[in-house]
Amino acid sequence: MAQVRSPEDRWAWVEVDLGAVKRNVRSLKKCLGRGVKLMCAVKADAYGHGAVACTKAMFQAGADQFAVATVAEGVELREAGITWPILMLNECPIDSIDTLVAYDIMPSLYTFDFGLAYGERAAAAGKVGKYHLAIDSGMNRIGVLPVDVVDFRHGLDFHRGLECAGTFTHFATADEVDGWDFQLQANRFVEAVTAIHNAGMETGLVHCDNTPGMILHPRAQFDMCRAGIGLYGLHPADSTRGIIHLEPAMSVRGRVTRVVRPPVGAGVSYGMQYRVPKQGVQIATVPIGYADGLARVLSNNMDVIINGVRARQAGRICMDQFMVAVEPDGPRGYRPNRPVEVGDVVTVLGRDGDEEITADEMAKLRNTINYEVTCNFGMRLEKVYV
Ligand SMILES: *Cc1c(COP(=O)(O)O)cnc(C)c1O
Questions:
Q1: Which of 20, 264, 332, 348 has its CA 20 to 30 A from that of 250?
Q2: Beta strand pairing call for 355-357 and 383-385
Q3: How far is the C-alpha of 149 from the C-alpha of 335, rounded, in Å?
Q4: Is 364 a catalytic residue?
């Protein structure tokens, strides 16, 4: 790990493998039927991986459209020179509509007031406001209810400032293979889309599958799929493992800033929750903390990799730093291959030699999902693209 690139001003960084992102895009595209488009979810700064760089890499690998969650996320992409279609996956405050229009960011639409205001602002700017209609097929989050869909469209379609460029829903249980709830949502969505057609109106691109959906439910691919987590090399659930090969794109690394050998009984970090159990234990400091997305709940309960071998994290994780105990003969059986030195690379997430710490391992220890693990590491650490 000596030759890694790291930022100049901090011994801690997120490493993003854009080659892996591109290979994941290609693997996911292989799951798609002929002509089905791929929309890439790059919300939350591309799940912590850096939205601008990831969006460009995904487009190079064959992505068609991009999805964000907020106005600011869409603006960031446009200001970086990205010209491909961007969908915001929800509505925003009406006051921000002019920004959407100015930057050509399509909103999802599901309330009448927002739709009318969007049409008016677009027409005032001499543009046609493209939108995607969100349908709530059963998740009870956002969207027009299926029974109201045709009325809703009738109420908006007179508006010359509006164009329906897509119609979509989102599944609550796409990761289940034979789910009753999934089938119910899919049926309601198909009925709503059919009702729009029968009323003589355009739906634009019809889409509903997320990563587990496109892998496990190819019949629901329609015109486009919205991939997220799979782009970053992580599985949405155990049900997709073995069906598709994905490569994790994120690693989190730091360098040891200090090493000491405290006497037996000495405590480490706030509250001294770790005490040096025997002679010869090295305590190494790493400048990554919970303000960087390393959840404090992992304190005293996670491993890191140093010089290709695991070591246990020791004491409470602080806001900006944590400590590692390199025990010559520790309880977890880890055997350091040499004493730790200042400047050694510490891998918090990712691979070093034969060892790997996955987002899934960390998620399990935190009682959460891999999505939250990578999003959190996007908070403050500088990104290094490899
Ligand atoms: C985030 C998101 C996706 C992507 O989901 P993954 O599970 O990450 O593939 C798709 N659709 C909507 C509406 C989303 O919010």
A1: 332
A2: unpaired
A3: 63
A4: no
